[in-house]
Please model this.
Amino acid sequence: MTVTMTGTHTAPEGGEHALPPELGRVSLIWRVLRRDRTAMIGVVLVGGLVAAAVLAPVLAPHDPNAVDVVRKYHPPSREFPLGTDNLGRDILSRLLVGARLSIGTAVVAGLSIGLIGLVMGMIAGWFGGVADTVIGRVVDILLAFPLFLLALGMTGLIGPGLRNMTIALVGVAWAGYARIVRSAVLAERGKPYVEAARAAGATELRILRKHVLPNVVPPVIVLTTIDMGVVLLAISGLSFLGLGVKPPTAEWGSMLAEGRNYLDQGPQMTIFPGAAIFLMVLGFNLLGDGLRDALDPRASRALTHG
Amino acid sequence: MKRYVGRRILLLIPTLFGMSILTFGVSNLTPGDPAFTFASRLANRPATPDEVAQAREDLGLEGGLVTRYVRWAGNAVQGDLGISFSTRLPVRPELVQAAKFTLQLAIPAALLALLIAVPTGVVSAVRRNRPADQVLRVLSLAGASMPSFWLALLLVVLLAVNYSLLPAAGRAGTESYVLPIVTLALAPAAVLARFTRSAVLETLTTEYVVAARAKGAGEAVVVVRHALRNALVPLVTAVGNSLGHLVGGAAVVETVFVWPGIGRLMVEAILQRDYPVIAGIVLYSGAVFAVISLVVDLLYAVIDPRIRVGSDA
Model:
């Protein structure tokens, strides 16, 4: 058995690739992803909506908070592509500006959940002992609750608001990741290549970074992508209930909460923010599903050799 | 088997203990003094120190953290969750009543979700990568991406406001159950359909399915008797999980349909800063969920003899 100490063992085999291993891996994933039609829809949805959020100040045709009751409940038109709301504000502009808060929170929360879960799971799985017992107990307890209800209750106990809501969600949701990462690390730890690396004099940190991490990160990336959608649903749901972002601040969930009171006069106030949430979550789901297939080593191998 | 069940039930105790510590801990992290909040609300003005002291006694909030925890947890075990800050009535009866209303939605919704998910998942798996599978997969992904509150509002606009086919809110008569149940069932149906698909796909490649085919069993028998039956094992767990999510998801749906269930009680309690109600719901729903998970695990052992044999050995 030969053990290469330089590259990660997950890097694509075959020396004819002149790319450095990390870059080669990313481009390989992209090549698999590009052949997957539904995943590309996900890429377009996520990319498009994130770009729209980033460019919101440039793209927004009107001031999102400019009130003009004369033009209230304006149906979609040239000037107001998605119509106006009960205060005559331009719905498209509010959606664009609201995207920054909605998507931004979902991405930040999703990344925090993934990162905390990854670190906790690696500590528990690699070091074992007391750390494993303590983290394992906390994870068991958190996972014993229905997740959304626990997040809702925590938000209530520490006080409503976007910041507290995000803290509550992250504080509850990392547990599932930690459990998955822990068992993945445990599985890797026992493999011969780890022992070989250790025998060759690699430090613990190096083994973790170079050998264990590349095997643990892909499933976390997939889950994080999908969970950004779940988080977006949860955050907009909580805002819809009046526990997160409060009107008049534009956020997709709070816009829906406002629209709910004007279903008769201005259905556009309800239809479009909901459609925005739906498309964004769908995008995260499609992208996550595609990444799952692309990150599956079997799929990449089929592409390199086939 | 007996030993396995006994051990699993014993393991429930540390979980419940941890849950109570977590709930109590977070309740006590809250800024402000609940006795002051309660007394001020009672008096409709900032409370005097005497009133605060009285409220502290009435609410059982004297003593240090440990004393309070022991008292609170001891009472909770006996079914006493304290007094609601807003109604000044005991929390538990209110909670039990609300739970009944939520279950009236959650149980039919779970059944409806299964009724949609299992056939969908099986068809998807059997017709893998064919048009039928692709359409069903897109539909289930769309279902999983749909914000339930949005779907609820759209259904209200369409069926209640425009055509007056169904009531928009409240609970009066059978018709009022239709929209909340359908809305609530959508997300778990989508999740369970995806789950069934992958579970059946997995069993379809096993040796016993190949063997069943080899002995000449018809395709329907192979799929239903062999593949689906074995796929049921992981599915049971998924259903147990989705029951918990149904209760969580009920918060949004119950608010839209003005349904007096647990979710709505929770939202009201949060808006009113009614901490005993919030803590009570979190603790009791957590405990019920833990018991459901346990029952599911035990069912698992009943369905799949390998598990019970393995653990007793």
User: Anything to note?
Assistant: Chain A touches chain B through 49 residues (CB under 8 Å).
